[in-house]
Design a protein that fits this description.
By secondary structure, the chain is mainly β. The chain has 2 domains: 5-258 and 418-578, 7 Propeller (Methylamine Dehydrogenase, Chain H), CATH 2.130.10.10; 278-365, Immunoglobulin-like. The protein is built from 4 helices and 40 strands. The longest helix has 13 residues, at 261-273. The protein starts with a strand and ends in a 5-residue tail after the last strand. 30% of the residues are buried. It is found in: Cytoplasm; Nucleus. Keywords: Cytoplasm, Nucleus. It comes from Lipotes vexillifer. It holds the Pfam family CS. This is NudC domain-containing protein 1.
């Protein structure tokens, strides 16, 4: 059985700045432009039965503004009339109205249980689209940057069951055979989950093909499903379609298509209920093994062989327990006896008195160790010197223990450790695992649309951007940029809703639920001479922080960053903030 490789993320030291002095608040005004929308954004609020944290992560915090990474400064949203509206910016001072590029065939208002409409820009000529009712569309758009050749046409549409949102898609062309792979997310009800939330997260990897001989028809050729207990922070298909990468708080596993979740649950329960093959205890000098005997088993049916490092138990001609012992025994003094309750009791005399055995037979997990209360008390007494009832009993000690009260509120990260997993597309097995520990996930960004999306993680106080490279098995994740101290700064923004950065890493930005947008620029050379008085040295660069306050009381529904601009979507308005001037 193949085991997934445990990997680590390699930080590039030259991209870190240990002498970074923080962000300086700049009061330079940011040009901000406002467009009023013809129709309100098609926001879908959470229903009463969507009450879990996972529903809030997936649907309540959904980004309703979509950026076309193949064409800079082109954004899309879906309005209440079912229209997909596009705004492409050529000149900030001559902004046109958002234009309709496509209209969803479904009457969205007629569906009570729908989710928000979602889309993903698969390539420069393809878009995957969901209307939120459970129907998937493949749209051929022509070259979207060219108004003469752009025309949105439905090339495939099919009902795929319960409503879902699209989180990623890719386009593949192999030997004149075109295929599109897309990743769909659902949160499904789990009836058997009594202790948990009552829901599980489903990721469906759907592949749609068109054979070259049939030039019009696309059809689904593969559907693989993963189940997990938390909404993934990040999930993306590799550009060659050979694998899948997921960052999540709880792990995902592939399940068979059509397999009933209740059946798999029953199988898990039956494995848990299975009785141990034997029970064992130990004292300072003796190990006692107890085995329940089959009916009508007599003394003649039992054969036990004791060797210094080995034991072999045979019952009724069947080998019951055999293997190497954890440590040596006195095989001549070891004995066995049949008890009145039809059980076999084996006494093994330890060669090394006082040695605690963590297991009886090396590698055998079929037994259960029973620890008595006297032994627990003895172990606790031996460890007493390592513990204390007081948090810091000796503060004058050379190396006092960590005091949690000294941590600032923004240092506390409530989630347990997340993990980054890579799944193989053909075997559906996990091939690589990275334990992210306290490296909190922050956001994802598409730097190169032909590559997988990058993800940003907190490392100590910094925020580090990682680019996955599926083709490089030895070094699959590359550290490509650092946002100094941003991991620490963002933690203090308790009302943050969306987080993004420019594809060229020139700035990072986050917005709150209402009105305010914070921009953090990379350090740039100073035009004037500035000195650090404490260290008596000249400061060559300074990193600026800027704050924009939008003239609206509507909640922010969408947020996208390009190299030059920030786009902010509210229910009735689209705001443009000019961050960088064109080089």
């Amino acid at each position: 059985m193949e085991v997934a490789a445990n990997c680590s993320l390699r930080v590039k030291r030259p991209l870190l700045d240990p002498r970074f002095e923080g962000y300086k608040l700049s009061l330079e005004p940011l040009p901000c432009y406002q467009l009023e929308l013809d129709a309100a954004v098609a926001e879908v609020k959470l229903r009463d039965d969507q009450y879990t944290l996972e529903h809030m992560h997936a649907f309540g915090m959904y980004n309703y503004l979509h950026c076309d990474s193949w064409y800079q400064d082109s954004v899309y949203y879906v309005d209440n009339l079912g229209r997909i509206m596009n705004l492409t910016v050529m000149l900030d001072t001559a902004l046109g109205k958002p234009r309709e590029v496509f209209r969803l065939p479904t009457d969205l208002i007629a569906y009570d249980n729908r989710l928000c409409a979602s889309m993903h820009f698969t390539s420069s000529t393809w878009v995957t689209l969901s209307d939120g009712t459970g129907r998937l569309y493949l749209i051929g758009t022509g070259e979207r940057g060219n108004s003469a050749s752009e025309k949105w046409e439905i090339m495939f549409n099919e009902e795929l069951g319960n409503p879902f949102i699209i989180i990623h898609s890719i386009s593949l062309l192999k030997a004149e055979e075109h295929s599109i792979a897309t990743l769909l997310l659902r949160i499904e009800k789990e009836e058997l989950d009594i202790k948990g939330s009552g829901f599980y997260v489903s990721l469906e990897w759907v592949t749609i093909n068109k054979k070259s001989k049939d030039k019009k028809k696309y059809e689904i050729t593969k559907r693989n499903i993963l189940h997990g207990k938390s909404v993934p922070h990040y999930a993306a298909i590799e550009p060659n379609g050979n694998g899948l990468m997921i960052v999540s708080y709880k792990s995902f596993t592939f399940v068979q298509v059509g397999q009933n979740l209740e059946e798999s649950k029953d199988e898990d329960m039956s494995e848990k209920i299975k009785e141990p093959l034997y029970y064992w205890q130990q004292t300072e000098d003796v190990l006692t093994v107890t085995i329940s005997l089959p009916e009508d088993c007599t003394k003649e049916d039992i054969q036990i062989q004791f060797l210094p490092d080995h034991v072999n138990v045979v019952l009724k001609g069947q080998r019951f327990l055999e293997g190497n012992l954890y440590s040596s025994i006195d095989h001549e003094s070891s004995t066995w006896i049949i008890k009145e309750n039809n059980s076999l009791e084996i006494s093994l005399i330890k060669k090394n008195e006082g040695l605690t055995w963590p297991e009886l037979v090396v590698g055998d997990k079929r037994g259960e160790f029973i620890r008595d209360s006297a032994q627990c008390a003895a172990i606790a007494e031996r460890l007493m010197h390592l513990t204390s009832d007081e948090l810091n009993p000796n503060p004058d000690k050379g190396k006092p223990p960590c005091n949690a009260q000294e941590l600032e509120e923004c240092d506390i990260f409530f989630e347990e450790s997340s993990s980054l997993c890579r799944f193989d597309g053909s075997t559906l097995k996990t091939t690589h695992v990275v334990n992210l520990g306290s490296n909190q996930y922050l956001f994802s960004v598409i730097v190169d649309p032909k590559e997988m999306p990058c993800f940003c993680l907190r490392h100590d106080v910094d925020a580090l951007l990682w680019q996955p490279h599926s083709g490089n098995q030895d070094d699959m994740w590359e550290h490509i940029a650092t946002f100094n101290a941003l991991g620490y700064v963002q933690a203090s923004k308790r009302d943050k809703k969306f987080f993004a950065c420019a594809p060229n890493y020139s700035y990072a930005a986050l917005c709150e639920c209402l009105r305010r947008v914070f921009i953090y620029r990379q350090p740039t050379p100073m035009s004037t001479v500035l000195y650090n008085r404490k260290e008596g040295r000249q400061v060559g660069q300074v990193a600026k922080q800027q704050v924009a306050s939008l003239e609206t009381s509507d909640p922010i529904l969408g947020f996208q960053a390009t190299n030059e601009r920030l786009f902010v979507l509210t229910t009735k308005n689209l705001f443009l903030i000019k961050v960088n001037t064109e080089n």
